Amino acid sequence: DASDLKEATQEQAPVLRTSEVQQEELPDERDEDHKEINQKGSVEWGTYKSYIRAMGGLWVGAFLFLLYSATQGSVLVTIAAVGRWAERAPQNQDNFDIIGLVLGLGCLVIFLAVIRVYISFYTTIKASRRLHDRMAKAILRAKIQFFDINPLGRILNRFSADVGIMDDQLPHTLYDFWMIAFIVLGSVVTIAVTLPFVLIAFPALGWYFFRVRKV
């Protein structure tokens, strides 16, 4: 009768409303496709390999390593020559042999430092240009589905912010890192040669600085 139909309708109404609310709360699968995936944690070795290949390959990396080593080695030799000059007797400090040696080593340090700066920034800018060109070629050859999934602002951000970091910040950061690393390495070698017993404390100091760096 009419009363039974009314009661049945009242009982089904909350169920229908609950199902509608649950359907509204479900995330849209299309929104999931538009979310950008960002990797977190340590940089993978593949990223370093790709950047080294963009710089010119392992040969360029090996040449830069030798150039940084030669520059820091010439600095240490120059410091040692100045020390020998200071240890000489006052009447022998005006001799041309020691003065010429110090001046020659100083000019060598300046020359290697200038070459080091030029090649370092040249290779990093070259890597940035190559990565930009590869990305542009990939975008031009991408399917229409790629532009449907990735918003235009995200694509432009790759070509503006990310490429800007590779052009401006990364070359300075890499140069400062390698320069300071070789300065520290040169200091460690100098200490090891002059005061070998100090090497006993190096493992503990290395562990401590590694922990501080992680913090």
How is this structure best described in words?
- The structure is a single chain.
- This protein has 215 residues and is an all-alpha fold.
- Helix content is 83%, strand content 0%.
- The chain has helices at residues 2-25, 29-34, 45-55, 58-87, 96-140, 144-149, 152-194, 202-214.
- Helix 5 packs antiparallel against helix 7.
Question: What's this model, at a glance?
Answer:
The chain has 215 residues and is mostly helical. The protein has 8 helices and no strands. The termini are far apart.
Proportion of residues in β-strands: under 5%
Largest sheet: none
Q: How many distinct beta strands?
A: 0
Shape: elongated
Q: Distance between the terminal alpha carbons, to the nearest Å?
A: 76 Å
Q: Kindly state the mean pLDDT as a whole number?
A: 82
Uncertain regions spanning at least 5 consecutive residues: 8-28
Structural class: mainly alpha
The helix count comes to 8
CA-atom Rg in angstroms: 32 Å
Element string (H = helix, E = strand): HHHHHHHH
Residues in helices, as a percent range: over 70%
Which key terms come to mind for this protein?
about 220 residues; mainly alpha; elongated; 8 helices; single chain
Chart the SSEs and their pairings:
Elements: H1 2-25, H2 29-34, H3 45-55, H4 58-87, H5 96-140, H6 144-149, H7 152-194, H8 202-214
Helix pairs in contact: 3-5, 4-5, 4-7, 5-7
